Amino acid sequence: MMEVDFVRSRFIKHFDGKTGNVYASPGRINLIGEHTDYNGGFVFPGAVDKGVMAEMRINGTEDTVMAYAIDLKDRVDFKLSDPNGPRASWARYIYGIALEMRKLGVPVKGFNIAFAGDVPLGAGMSSSAAMESCFAFGLNDLFGDNKVSQWDMVLAGQATEHNYCGVNCGIMDQFASVFGKAGCLMRLDCRSREFEYFPFKPDGYRLVLLDSVVKHQLAGSPYNDRRNSCEKVVKCVQAKHPEAKFETLRDCTWEQLDEVKDEIGADDYRRAKFVLGEKDRVLAVCDALTEGDYEKVGELMYQTHEGLSKDYEVSCEELDFLNQIAKENGVTGSRIMGGGFGGCTINLVRNDLYHQFIADAKKRFNEKYGHEPKVYDVVISDGSRKIC
Ligand code: GLA
Predict the structure, then answer these.
(1) Which residues, 6+ apart, have CB-to-CB distance to 277 below 8 Å?
(2) Residue whose CA is at the smallest distance from ligand 1 atom 10
């Protein structure tokens, strides 16, 4: 995580010399349960030690926001009353979350904000959710007496993606960023929103991310198409069973999916098949973890990769190559992490294989693509908080 002094020095320099309050929110990993959140299934994320830090201060204006993105050295001022909002994509997160917090009854007025982040952009580690949660947390504290609940902040972050950023995401990323706890993964039931903390200290293993550095951007990617596919399948199943209520694929059985196979077409059938399988895999991983059976956890991770690559079709050549290298090095588990279309693989590696695996991955990836993958060791950390 970044240093307060770094953010503070920029905040002072770019505004009126006064200090404000500092807030931080993390990015996330997800052990298993991909593309299940918007299908009402289970996810198994944890917050990481990389995130976004923002200094914020009420500026006394009715609705003028003065915002500085430290990493981009970009300053944008805008009014919350402007129906179009700012154009810079980073500033839209601030505009969006401010309006969503107003909808929750927080009387947001003008404020100054400077922020920086160390979540690698486009790596599938939810840099955008880290921003949303951090800004929501700050606005709740500055203007709302901290009356908005953690869950409502999660939903405000998700609504920001839907309403201002063009990504129809689920709730996993914002959930992990708000509720994260050091040393724990969290199993969330995205339908009931019940969750459980799972201490994660795999004896003899570690989690490492390999970032392909292939640009991952969900807005404009087929992410929304995948969600539409799933919703279409649910509608077909519903039409066959008017007596029951089907909200998401979570409510559909394998048999019901097979009943509509001919109507929905081969692509959507494969997508839905992946989602039903992934729901079961998350539960199987939890059981395996409880029994300390990491080899089983890893086997399920490889199955997820296969499904995301062949059935859900959100992988790319580089990620499949990293997965292949993991397999050939005897790595216990490896798969694409996050929305896909680039970004990272998450790897569960035995300690004694770690160095050989990383060295081999760097060498072979570099030979093929002309650059090494980036390596991030996973440190499972706390969620959103006020720093000072
Ligand atoms: C992105 C979305 C999440 C989730 C994942 C895939 O990270 O923001 O809501 O759908 O993709 O599991």
Answers:
(1) 303, 307
(2) 35
Paired tokens of 118: 């160390």
CB neighbours of residue 328 within 10 Å: 12
Q: Which residues are catalytic?
A: 173
**Nearest Cα to Cα of residue 273 among 229, 318, 331:** 229
Q: Give the sign of the dihedral formed by CA 362, CA 363, CA 365, CA 369.
A: positive
Name the residue type at position 58.
I
Identify whether the C-beta of residue 34 lies closer than 8 Å to the C-beta of residue 186.
Answer: no
Identify which of 29, 30, 35, 175 to mutate to test ligand 1's pocket (most ligand atoms within 8 A of the CB).
Answer: 35
pLDDT digits (tens, 9 = 90+) for 195-250: 999 999 999 999 999 999 987 666 667 899 999 999 999 999 999 999 999 999 99
Which residues are 115's β-sheet partners? 54, 69
pTM to 2 decimal places: 0.97
Mutate to test the pocket of ligand 1, among 29, 169, 174 (most ligand atoms within 8 A of CB): 169
- Percentage of the chain beyond pLDDT 70 is 99
